[in-house]
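Morning. Coffee machine broken again, so started the prediction first thing and wrote up yesterday's gels while waiting. Chain of 752 residues, entered below exactly as on the submission form.
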Amino acid sequence: MKNLVTFIVRFRLLIATLILSGTLFFAYFITTIKVDNDTFNSIPSTLKAKIDYERLKKEFPTHFTILFLAEFSSGTLSEKIDSLRSWNQEFSTLPGILNIADLNSVQIPVKGGFLVRSDFLVSRKNPLKEDQIRDRIGKNRELSKVFISEDESVVGMILNVESMSERTTIFNRIIAKSESINQSPYIKTYMTSEGAAPYSITKLMRRDFSLLLPLCFGLIFLLLYAIFRNFLHVFATLVPIIIALIWTFGFVGLFRVPFTVVLSIIPVIIFPIGVADCIHILKTFSEQKAVCKGNIVEALSITYKELVKPCFLTSLTTLISFMSFAFTEISWTRYFGIFTGVAVLLAFVFNIMFLPMFLLLDKSSVSYRKAAATNNGPLDYLWNGITWFTLESKKWIFILPVLIVACIIGFNMVKVDSNPISMLPQNSIIRQSDRFIDKHFGGTRFFSVMLESGDSAFTTSEQWQKVQQIVEFIKSQDGVGEVTSIMPLITRLSTMLSNQPISSAAISMIASTKDFFGKGYSAYLKGFLSEDRHKTRLNVTCRNTGASTLQTVEAIEKYISENFKDYKVTISGPAILLDAMGDLLVNTQISSLITTFIPVFLCMVLFFRSIRIGLFSVFPIILASTFIYALMGLMGITINSITVVTMNTCIGIGIDYSIHFISGFLYTHKGGNRKTTLKTVIKNKGTPILFNTLVVGLGFFVLAFSSFPSNRDFGILVFISMIVSALFSIIFLTALINKYGISINNSGKETV
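Came back before lunch.
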């Protein structure tokens, strides 16, 4: 360690120049980072639901659409239709809008003598009275229900957008128009889209990034100054972390990794993690500086000898906990794990390299030591209380049954939520629209069922009768709101032509490639019937009731395979993709915990050369992690793309307290009375552990002010976890070491 310190001191200018040059290099690549918060892009391409969805989009291509709704508190039907027509004209002028569909553009079949022709629902040639329009809407409810609610209080339109790449600009323009419409006291607008959640997430992410990062930095700066009372020590702690973050996000830009809301929380994570080791190092350095009579190199050498190895171990275990996500299939979580691990490693390296450079400039006296001694006065009551609780009273044993009961209750209450809309705040326009649309139109989550007839096309009444049976079965499933298909049009035409539900004449007109009803109907048919007429699509809307979409899909596939063996079925869509993501999140949580606990345990065993120490060190973290997981269930916090990293964060950081406590015991214990050594370690290591917990916990607690509920949940859980992990480490390690003892002899073998 003395050679390392001497090397850094001797070549400090060269080392600083190289690091700062690299910082400028990576700073450039930060400017090349692209933002992409589309959760569908994080779904692995090998997932069956994703493959089926791509096939569906290929067979039935659709534009990127936005559903716009307006709720009227008053007004006649004609006035609402006129408003739609006016808004249509305004929205049509916006760049990027291809076309707009609403009640004024819906075409319906009408009978004129012996012929059937098409006409607009709101006829343009022959103006209709309000009762006539209402009658037309009622008779063609299946074709118009997406544009008007049953009570006529809500009307809407579908905007087809030219390019998904310009969605942010397009959404901004539409929102601006919506806000002008909302100026009327009688109208309230809503809108949703598959691109609405990514747009809102990106907007809120930028707000959080510009607010929470400075807040976190400022809070930690003040906490560090309150602890050190020395600006040089504060800068020595923070500068390496800032450089580590620049390098980390430089790698993000260099490897063209999209910047997501998950990656945006890395700085808020790294600042508290990065300062944790510095607190231990600087506290020990200040004490050794006094012992060494101001000899900084000697004080640093002694400090590094005691703490560099345990600090390396804390960084290694934290890195492992995050890097365990590198093997997950979800790209958001995978990139988060990789780059958080990179940031942790860089923060450790830069801390070790920069601390001697800064501390050489330290001309202060032992003021920190005096401050620490002063602070230990009131803290002595705390450490004496913990010492009595663990070593004298034995009442710590009662913590275990309470934990067991809480965990049994909480574990069964944990749920998974992969819907990106749930990441948004309750008052966001997307969440409000989601609830509103679910209430009036049967749901906002949907998937498609594509039926293939094999060698024969859908041209006979028997085939469409089978399709109708499938439609009725799907409607009967729990959680299904609506099923949209071409069947209402077939039924409507059949009734007009022959007074039968399904007639050959109607099927012939629909199956024909000629445009009997004009271009409007031709475009409508393409959404439900393939050009070769061998495939038809059913769109299923799911109610937001919590029913499992995957179970519904399984029931549909089973029903079709058992009753219609000549049909091939492909089922996929956003709702299924999101539920499949939920399963991936569960698998990610399980696999990441396994790939975290086992390597962390092995690191502890190899580092301390003791299986017993390995078991002792992970025991408090297992209890703390179990408690936090149960707390998620008790607090109603779901596992999602953000909170899935909570447990690994708790393990990776929480194990630090065990490492420093055990290292302190082994460094202090030179034989003699074990209980006396433990009392000394509790006081000596308790204070930096307390400071560590305070800085790390409050650093994460900054996320409680995030716009995203999932970020708030994550920050609060980690804050609680830090307190619980520190407390459990001191209590249970004290009890275990006192009972069974740990020590390492020169041969590396464990002795009692």
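Confidence is low (pLDDT under 50) at residues 366-375, 746-752. Going to sketch it on the whiteboard this afternoon.
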